[in-house]
Amino acid sequence: MNSDEEEERQPERLPISRRPEWADVTPIPQNDGPNPLVPIAYKEDFRETMDYFRAVYRADERSPRALELTKEAILLNPGNYTVWHFRRQILEVLNADLHDELAFVGRIAKSNSKNYQIWHHRRWVAEKLGTDASNKELEFTKKILALDAKNYHAWSHRQWVLTALGGWEDELDYCKKLLEEDIFNNSAWNQRHFVISRSPLHGGLRVMRDSEVSYTVEAILTNPENESPWRYLRGLYLDDTESWINDPRISSVCLKVLSTKSNYVFALSTLLDLICHGFQPSDEFREAIYALHASESEPLDSDLGKAICHVLKYIDPMRANYWLWRKSKLPLRAVSSQ
Amino acid sequence: MEPALRETVTQREQSMVLNDVNMLYHIYATVPPKTQRLMLELQRDNHVEYLLRGLQHLGPSFCSLDAKICCKPFFWHITLCRPWICYWILHSIALLGESVDATLEDKTIDFLSCCQDPDGGYGGGPGQMPHLATTYAAVNALISLGGDRSLTSINRDKMYMFLKRMKDPSGAFRMHDAGEIDVRACYTAVSVARILNILDDELVHNIGNYILSCQTYEGGISGEPGSEAHGGYTFCGLAAMILINEADRLDLPALIDWVVFRQGVEGGFQGRTNKLVDGCYSFWQGGIFALLQRFHSIIGERPTLVDAGGADCSIDSIQTTAESDLSEDEESSDGTSSQDDEACHFQHGGSQEASCSVNDKSAEMGPLYHSIALQRYILICSQDPGGGLKDKPRKPKDYYHTCYCLSGLSVCQHSWLKDEDSSPLPRAVLGPYSNVLEPIHPVFNIVLDRYQEAHEFFTRS
Ligand SMILES: [Zn+2]
Fold it and tell me: Residue A117: its chain B contacts at CB < 8 A?
């Protein structure tokens, strides 16, 4: 357990049974049946808190003291979705200050940033607060992402905030900054794709494509072994395969990487996809691919698609069967698409 | 953009893991053959002991339970642990070909019955709200246990009502009352409904649209629209689409291209692009190939959709090729079959536009991923010889990883087979042949004969 939480837990905790405000409530012990399986040895304070929680939950008591009790229960076990759910019902009835609630969730989230419940709760609170919460939520996820730049829940929450509450203005810069820190951060690439295709400020994928291709090509040439920009590059043409095939920048980045003769798996794989979709490679491509294979005794197939699969099978043995399979898919396509 | 002079966080973490893994492979390569054989051996007895110990008694304190089991974000829930632990342990024991004694069996059924909500579904413990993830875990645990007492303990009528309550107007499912909507919820709902034989058009309606909206530009599937492609969600999304007979709406060539690249130099799979290898993705990612090979003609030889006049009994045809199930035909023949004529061309901007030819050579070629390399990663890097399996070297073992590493291992061993009735070829199995685990039904991740028992039981009743 994290030290933050230990602090919250107040070492001199007074048992609920000795608190006057709870004197009228009879705690309900957990019923695991006659033969409890997978028994869990609970700590006493946890057991007691849950026994009282069951009592207020069963009585559907939506009161300030019940709200306080859910807080205690959550601090002891932030993964209990039943407690969170009941807390939301109480918050609603009491018309509680939701900014306080955000602060409370924020404290817990720092040590439990991979807990579905916390993020779901946070989304609920932020939704109630509306567009005012946008900035706060973007800052909050930024803090979590500073600790773990690939935290799946934080990214999902951030995307929800942008979509539901707005705040797109700085998002592309934020992606840029994260990618400057770590160009291999695929979550940041994914977010970039999210921004350029969904932000109302940028005009959509087609409008952004030109500048994005330049950015991505540069990233590829700096680290051709980095899969993220290669997939991103393809993602820029999701709705428009024709332009993807015909944009000379796509085939030429493949050619450039091939000519370096190192880290060219993604270049070959992209070229193969292009050819499968009808791209007509010039002799330059043929020469570059044959040059990769120069030292091998076995001659390459004159069908460039097959030749690429052959080279890939050789240099990428982990996926040898995949390249064989791709090769087996080629002839049919050649007949149908040309 | 400046050339990357310094290592980024991704590069640094990757090279640390690679060091550990290479060290182990180096040790393997340099020890005498006898030790090598030992390193590749699945330590069955120790795993069984570890698992049984877990079922009988679990850790000294609540907090240690929290730390030990809930280290993964996927399917993660502290209070959900108990039905999950039941499933992880019972499924692992079934994979190892063992069973639990009558007392433990009764205890499990009694305990899970206490978690069953009077209004249907299962919660994480007695008195907790029903939740789809725990419902899936409880149902799979009871089926992995098998036997009439276990199967009759599930209240199917109430379950149907629960699933209907979890169905959002958009078509997707919520994890619990007013809970989060995501691809896991869709998969667990459909999986439970299908195996209990209560899946109908109302439950199926528009799930496909939601899952389709989660396929990302990378090719894999994310938890929610816009999020990053992820192994766990890709498995759930594809399995759900297969269950509702709409897998062809996905861009399968792009999905396959994404998933083959998730297998790294370590031999194991990563969950997302440029993330670290992790043993549990042996199943989430490796299982994707089993799904496609068995239930889709794009890889395997089963032309399940080519000649489909509406219904597809492929989910059941895994048991024996000839068996046809009329009740399945009836339930899915309307509403979900409109995709059939799309089966042979992928209309969703596929990156390779593969045609669905039936003349594949996958049976001779082996699976599209490197099955032996994956088995090597599981046995050498994920196995604790003293019992239990784990994410990667230096990580502690836990029941979650034990379950999904073993499930992945089973998928590998049986991956060359055209049907599940035959035994794996010796060349498909890394290590001694005694490593062979029971085959699973990859859609539900339940050992095959337990699946068959449940399928017959719920078709009958
Ligand atoms: Zn894992």
Answer: 77
For A160, name the nearest residue in chain B, comparing CA atoms only. Answer: B226
Q: How many A-B residue pairs are in contact by the CB < 8 A criterion?
A: 242
Query: B112-140: per-residue pLDDT in tens?
Result: 999 999 999 999 888 889 999 999 999 99
Please check the confidence at residue B417 and state whether its pLDDT lies above 80: no
Collapsed DSSP state (helix, strand, coil) of residue B389:
strand
Residues in Cβ contact with B357 at an 8 Å cutoff, skipping those fewer than 6 apart: A329, A332
Q: Give the Cα-Cα-Cα angle B244, B250, B251 (nearest 5 degrees).
A: 160
DSSP character at residue B177: T
- DSSP-assigned letter for residue B215: B
**Which pLDDT tens digit goes with each residue over A300-324?**
888 999 999 999 999 999 999 999 9
Where is average pLDDT lowest: A194-203, A329-338, B180-189?
A: A329-338
Among residues B115, B186, B214, B280, the one annotated as catalytic is B280
Please list the residues that pair with B215 across neighbouring strands: B221
Tokens standing for residue A215: 């950015």
Task: Tell me if chain A has a CB within 8 Å of the CB of B354.
Answer: yes
Chain A interface, best mutation among B259, B293, B351, B362, by max A CB count within 10 A: B351
Give the pTM: 0.88
All residues with CB under 5 Å from ion ligand 1: B 72, 278, 280, 391
**Would you call A216 an interface residue with chain B, using a CB distance cutoff of 8 Å?**
no
pLDDT of residue A40: 61
Q: Which residues of B touch A187 (CB under 8 A)?
A: 228, 272
Segment 144-173 of chain A within 8 Å of chain B by CB? 149-150, 152-153, 155-156, 159-160, 163
Annotated active-site residue B391? The verdict is yes
Mean pLDDT of A98-117: 87
**CB hemisphere CA count around B141 (13 angstroms):** 33
DSSP symbols for B359-420: ---HHHH--SS-HHHHHHIIIIISB-TTS-B-SSTTSPPBHHHHHHHHHHHHHHHTTT-SST
**Mean pLDDT taken over chain B:** 83
* Cα A330 to Cα A310: distance, rounded to the nearest angstrom: 12
State the Cα–Cα distance between residues B23 and B394, nearest whole angstrom. Answer: 12
Rounded distance between C-alpha atoms, residue B327 and residue B224, angstroms:
33
Helices (H), ranges, B116-155: 132-145, 148-152
Report the complex ipTM.
0.91
